[in-house]
Inverse folding.
């Protein structure tokens, strides 16, 4: 069985403190740039946002694909860890909290997925890790009678992707649409 710990490892993080700070700054800047500009974000802009030179970017990420993969894996790792963060909440609240985190995650994933082959081993392994992290939250909410018993986790994944792929201009509208979708997942016996 695959677990959230089975997410492919991101490239080895540097050991020196300054190199580690640069690496983390580049990941954060790339995350923001891909969320803002999609896969067309320039590497020069990412380096500038991180406060480093383009040479530093290339030392850590020799190719554009290396940077995309590192951002993707970093985001998947954070998403999988967030399942543990909500596991102590009431079953429905934990599921909803994780789904909200998943919607935030998809902003970066969408841009990165444009560049990575969906059939790639990395993409498939990350998908398995996401299912391993989120499916128990759905099952727990179903066992508590909070979520509809006919909902499968694949349904949840498709719902999230559908909402995040919609051309929504305002974040508030995305939250309203997500709220309506979550209401549809809720067990009819819950008041």
């Amino acid at each position: 069985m695959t677990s959230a710990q089975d997410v492919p490892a991101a490239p080895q993080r540097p050991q020196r403190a300054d190199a580690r700070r640069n690496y983390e700054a580049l990941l954060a800047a790339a995350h923001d740039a891909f969320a803002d500009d999609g896969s067309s974000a320039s590497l020069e802009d990412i380096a500038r946002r991180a406060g480093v030179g383009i040479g530093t970017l290339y030392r850590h990420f020799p190719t554009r694909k290396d940077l995309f993969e590192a951002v993707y894996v970093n985001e998947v790792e954070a998403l999988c860890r967030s399942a543990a963060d909500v596991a102590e909440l009431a079953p429905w609240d934990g599921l909803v909290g994780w789904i909200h985190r998943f919607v935030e995650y998809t902003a970066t994933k969408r841009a990165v997925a444009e560049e990575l082959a969906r059939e790639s081993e990395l993409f498939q392994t990350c998908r398995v890790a996401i299912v391993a992290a989120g499916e128990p939250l759905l099952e727990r909410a179903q066992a508590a009678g909070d979520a509809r018993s006919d909902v499968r986790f694949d349904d949840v994944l498709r719902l999230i992707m559908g909402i995040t792929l919609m051309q929504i201009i305002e974040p508030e509208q995305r939250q309203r649409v997500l709220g309506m979708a979550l209401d549809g997942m809720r067990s009819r016996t819950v008041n």
